[in-house]
Amino acid sequence: MKTRRYDKNITLIVLIVGVFSFSIAFAAFSSSLIIRSTTTVSPSKNNFSVKLSKSRLSLDEGLVEPVSETPIVAENSSKAVIDNSGDSPTISNLSASFTEPGQQVVYAFYAFNTGNYKAYYRGVGFKNVPGTAYTKKCTALEGATESLVESTCRNISMSFQYGGSMMTVPDSAKDPNYTNSGNNYLDTTDSMSRSSVIYLTIKYSDRAITPADGPFTVEFGDIYLNFSSSAN
Q1: Among residues 25, 82, 104, 145, which one has the fewest Cβ atoms lying within 10 Å of its Cβ?
Q2: Residue pLDDT, tens place only, 55-72
Q3: Phi and psi at residue 67, to the nearest 5°
Q4: How many angstroms separate the CA atoms of 104 and 202, rounded?
Q5: Is the confidence at residue 32, as pLDDT, over 60?
Q6: Secondary structure of the chain in the HEC alphabet?
Q7: How far apart are alpha carbons 26 and 61 in whole angstroms?
Q8: In angstroms, how far is CA 79 from the centroid of its own chain?
Q9: Beta-ladder partners of 139
C-alpha cells in the first residue's frame, strides 16, 4: 500500500496510561533551624505544598477541557481529572481521539503554590509504560494491521511545556535533571507568580504517509515534575 487512502473513518484513540504527577522534594527540611542556644524550630513539610489547578488565580480542581483546532477531536477527547488528595498531585484521564494525520489536542493546567515557601522547579522526568522499556506503547485493535499500526505509531507524540521550555517525551525513561533553578519558582507572596501554566500536547504528525487501517491505542508512561523549597 503506497498511496494514502481514507476509505473509512479511522479513529486513533490515544490513552495516557498512568498519570502526570508532581514529585515534591523536602531535602531542605532534613535539618533543624536553630534559634539561639535553647530553641529548635523544625519547619513542617505541610507548609510546602504545590498542587494542580485548572485556574491560574485560584486552586480549582475542576475538569480540564481538551483543546483542538479540529472540533470533532476536541469533542471526542476526554476531560482530564485533577487529584490533589495524595502526597503527589496527579492529573489523569488524558486521551485524544484522532481520525487523520495533522491533528492534535492540547491540555493546559497550572502548577499552583498553596504552601508558605517558594517552590523552586528542579526538573521533569519521564517513566516507561509499565512492563515495557519504552515511554510509548501502541496496541492494534480489531481490524487493524499490526505493521501499519507500528508504522503509524512513530507519528504519535506527546510534548511537555513548562517554564518557557518545551520537550517531546523521549523514547525511554529519563530522570529529571536537578540543577539550580535560579528564578524559576512559584512564589507565595505574589499572586501573579504563584502559579505557572503546564501544556501537554498529543499530536498525530502530518508526516504519516500510510495511516493505520483500523483503530489502535497509544499508551504513554507517567510524566513527573519536581519542586523543592531550596534553589540549590
Answers
A1: 145
A2: 999 999 999 999 999 998
A3: -125, 135
A4: 6
A5: no
A6: CCCCCCCCCCCEEEECCCCEEEEEECHHHCCCEEECCCEEECCCHHHCCEEEECCCCCCCCCCECCECCCHHHHHHCCCEEEECCCCCCEEECCEEEECCCCEEEEEEEEEEECCCCCEEEEEEEECCCCCCCCCEEEEECCCCCHHHHHHHHCCEEEEEEECCEEEECCCCCECCCCCCCCCCEECCCCHHHCEEEEEEEEEECCCCCCCCCCCEEEEECCEEEEEECCCC
A7: 24
A8: 14
A9: 217
Provide CB contacts within 8 A for 213, sequence distance 6+. Answer: 10, 143, 144, 145, 148
Nearest 10 degrees: Cα torsion 216, 99, 214, 80: 20
Residue 111, C-alpha cell as written in the block: 502548577
pLDDT digits (tens, 9 = 90+) for 205-226: 888 677 788 888 888 888 888 8
Q: Which amino acid is at 194?
A: R
